[in-house]
Amino acid sequence: MGIDDAGVHDSFFDLGGYSMQATMLVSRLRERFRIDLPLRTLFKAPTIAGLAREIADVRGSDMRVSANPIVPMPRTARLPLTFAQERIWFIDQIAPGNVAYNDTMGLALDGDLDPRLLELSLAEVVRRHEILRTSFPDAGGSPNQEIHAAITLPLELIDLSEVEGEEREQAVRDLAVASGQRPFDLQRGPLLRTSLLRLSQRRHVLLLTIHHIVSDGWSLGVMINEVAQIYRAMIAGRPSHLPPLAIQYADFAQWQREWLRDARLETLLAYWRERLAGAPHVLELPLDHPRSPEERFMGSVEEIDIDESVTSAFRMLARSNDVTLFMALLAAFKTLILRYTGSDDVIVGTDVANRNRRETEPLIGFFTNQLVLRTDISGDPTFIELLSRVREVTLGAYDHQDLPFSRLVEELQPQRDLSRNPLFQIAFTLQDAPPLHLDLDDLRWHHLSFDTGISRVDFEFNLHETPRGITGRAVYNSDLFKPATIRRMLEQYALLLREISERPAQRLSSFSLLSESERHLQLVTWNAAGSSSVSDATFHRCFEERAALHPEQTAVVHGDRRMSYRALNEEANRLARVLLAEGIGLDQVVGLLMERGIEMLTTMLALFKIGAAYLPLDPGHPSRRRGGIIEGSGMNHLIVAPELAGTALENLEEVPEELRPGIVCVADLDLRGSEAGNLDIDYPPEALAYVIYTSGSTGRSKGAMVEHRGLLNHIRAKIADLELSDADAVAQTASQCFDISVWQFLAVLLVGGHVVIYDDDITHRPGMLLDDVEGDGVTIWEMVPSYLGLVIEEIDRRGSSAPALRSLRWLVPTGEALPPHLCGLWLERYPCVPMLNAYGPTECSDDVTHYPIAASPEPGVSRMPIGRPVINTQIYILDEHLQPVPLRGMGEL
Question: What is the DSSP secondary structure assignment for residue 812, as one 8-state letter?
Fold first, then answer.
């Protein structure tokens, strides 16, 4: 027997998915030449002549001889399960009645059908294959295979012929789903059920539901082909001539247990230990819904077609780069996952038929194995470079595919997590077997697929080659993802394939996942909603205009003190002139060391009027922090409150003498002779308004400098989105060193309302602040979510005596991620007080996005949006290469 006799054709063999052609070829060559032929041999030599040379080299090497043949074993002793079966059995023990491993398929039968002969044909297949008569009882805490001599497998007949049109098609789908969702009893069996749906006299659908512990995708093909042959023979009144089975699945299970041990097992384990060392515990796509503590295996399906032109281009790309179509499509899929997760250590699972011995080809049983394909995509490689990486990973995995996935999990012992599949959460397969389509005289059979509502991993993408191109079927966890999210991913995969086929030498970062319409939506449409004319004004001029319109209206309240717009403006004018006399003026940075109050607000306005920028310092901060800010900012002067004048520069020995600012004590300033009219000082909106020191991403304080243009734009956004008016009272509660303090002090002063300043001894007591907000008639109240939690606790503690907050119009959470449950708690208690979730960095003049919340979030919402950009602000979410990420993708703002 030569190579030609082994059934080798002069063609290129793909190693992806179930790939029956390659798997069957290897099993025949292994049997014929008695060698452990690696799958990579087929890849290295896709022609007959090349394959002959490779086999000669292998036979002459020191490679081990192929394993002994599988032979029948006596049925008297306890029969073990395969490693894969054992894992499924233990999963069923943890969650009895689990339907995640139910497989349902349908066969459309068009033509003359004899239901009785079909039932007998199914019964004969069950008789031939012991595994279909096997149950798995508990034998002292571990499973055992119990083979029954015979079982009754009735073919349930369901008549749908009276149901019309689409309703009938829906009835078929509903029955398929119902069959798939009915649990099997692994302890007792049977683990196969069948039903025949009669649609008309010449149209039927055969439904088969079988548990994965006794079957796999290849097995379903074996089963249907045998049923078809037996049925054809019965119709003709002759024997089927199916050859008797030399072995049964139980024989394979026993053989696997004996073969996979000692040095062979250790060789496989050593490879996978090294390959997966340091692998990430999870690779999670951005979720639409929070993950539950335990996996429920709830699934749904979305499909897509990839046209022949793209498929042909990818075939050519694969051939020209010495990879298979599976590898090329997998590389594109991993590129998609990279762009969604931001992780360049991408782990994807795939199925292999695992029938690499000829004896197993005609058997029904659970042979499929799962391989973990881990690819390093770091360094922004070109797609051609990625193909090479994927090629090596895939070939290595296939050459070590004999280690059962369950045994690998047992060895690596990943962190136990009942909410995820171990080692990989995303799967990818390419099936090159033609779809089932049989013509039996006057009866035509073809395969039907159904969405049975089951998903075993987070996201599984199954591709299938057809004469018209490639069809894609995504089975996804519907507890985690919305259908629109998965549809978008599939469309982006198709777009990515087209881009890659046209420019395969480009780096991965250059490929866009956005169509032109999506790109325009993200970059233009969503950023155009907040466009507005940009003012060339400065804050003090806008304030002076408002003071002239409402001179006697209250501008600021602090404790028992009130000040009108006229008084506040005139006091700021007098102070501005005095500060000018002290040498403070345009473009200088001036520190403010004072408690929050009317004096501080007056000083801020005075500095604006003379073109200086204020830099707030908190008296409660350690002197070391103040010293670092004084030295780093290079401030010219430091204005201090009287009670702090004597200690303003104490303990600042580390600040060089030449960098110490001049001290200006408010108590030493005589304003009595200063003129109260507005100053005639103007400057451009690009002038500096204030400097706020943040903690800094490196841990070192840094000063964020904000211009009047940015300050005014932010204030106008607050005025617009909160609909501020002269009837509003804004609570000023934030430390002067927090950026949110700026708009709290100033925004309402441009509409004629007033700001209510609260001291720290009140803001640090949620109950006291709650009462004062009610008593002072505050309409706008801002706080961080963690503080909101304390406020809600206080409200619940008081019960019916809690303040009604009748004046409050808006609650503004900011500064931290807003938990959805807090929104629900607040709106349950105050349904008439909506929330405005605000987000923004200090460097961008504070908030850059707003998101109004008027109703409690839906159950299952995991995070609250930060909203759309405020006026004259653009928002871009980009990857590390500054490319826009797809919707739901992971990036940076």
Answer: E
pLDDT tens per residue across span 640-695: 988 877 676 666 666 777 777 888 988 888 898 899 999 999 999 999 999 999 86
Distance in angstroms (rounded) separating the CA atoms of residues 830 and 833 = 6
- 428 forms bridges with which residues in the sheet? 461
Which pair of structure tokens corresponds to residue 518? 């999506």
Q: Contact at 8 Å (CB) between 856 and 821?
A: no
DSSP state at residue 403: S
* 3-class DSSP assignment, residue 225: helix
C-alpha 710/C-alpha 540 separation (Å) is 14
Dihedral sign for Cα atoms in the order 709, 710, 715, 719: positive
- The DSSP-derived string for 476-543 is EETTT--HHHHHHHHHHHHHHHHHHHH-TTSBGGG-----HHHHHIIIIIHHHTT--PPP---HHHHH
Residue 216 and residue 457: Cα distance in Å, rounded? 17
pLDDT at 651: 62
Q: Strand pairing partners for 688?
A: 707
Q: Which of 59-73, 377-391, 575-589, 764-778 has the lowest mean pLDDT?
A: 59-73
202 vs 667, residue with greater confidence: 202
Give the whole-angstrom CA distance, residue 850 versus residue 834: 13
Please answer whether residues 596 and 759 qualify as being in contact, where contact means their C-beta atoms are separated by less than 8 angstroms: yes
Task: Give the C-alpha separation, 64 to 569, whole Å.
Answer: 94
Q: What b/e readout covers 440-477, taking b as 16+ CB neighbours within 10 angstroms? A: beebebeebebbbbbbbbbbbbbbbbeeebbbbbbbbb
The whole-angstrom separation of Cα 219 and Cα 209 is 13
pLDDT score for 41: 61
Tokens of 660: 């110490």
- In contact, 165 and 135? CB cutoff 8 Å: no
Rounded CA-CA distance 410/189 in Å is 27
Q: What pTM value is reported for the model?
A: 0.81
Q: Is 249 in contact with 130 (CB distance < 8 Å)?
A: yes
Assigned token pair, 796: 């619940």
Packing angle of the helix pair 565-581, 539-549 (nearest 10 deg):
140
Each residue of 130-176: pLDDT tens digit? 999 999 999 888 899 999 999 988 999 999 999 988 999 999 999 99
Q: 792 pLDDT band (50/70/90 cuts)?
A: very high
Low-confidence winner among 36-40, 129-133, 134-138, 178-182 (lowest mean pLDDT): 36-40
Contact 372, 276 (CB under 8 A): yes
Average pLDDT, the chain: 89
3-state secondary structure of 787: helix
Specify the DSSP class assigned to residue 788.
H
CB of 778 closer than 8 Å to CB of 624: no
| 8 Å CB contact between 197 and 172 | yes
| Cα angle value 587/590/591 (rounded, 5°) | 155
Strand partners, 475: 301, 460
| Cα separation, 276 vs 273, whole angstroms | 5
435-449 pLDDT per residue, tens: 565 677 788 988 888
Distance in angstroms (rounded) separating the CA atoms of residues 392 and 321: 13
CB atoms within 10 A of CB 167: 9
Mean pLDDT is lowest, of 298-302, 447-451, 480-484, 835-839, for 447-451
Predicted confidence at residue 9, as pLDDT, reads 36
- Amino acid identity, residue 586? L
pLDDT at 529: 65
CA of residue 786 relative to chain centroid, distance: 26
Helix (H) or strand (E) holding 767: helix 766-775
Tokens of 761: 């001894």
Give the number of other Cβ atoms within 10 Å of residue 625's Cβ. 14
Token pair, residue 501, equals 């086929």
What pLDDT was estimated at residue 436? 61
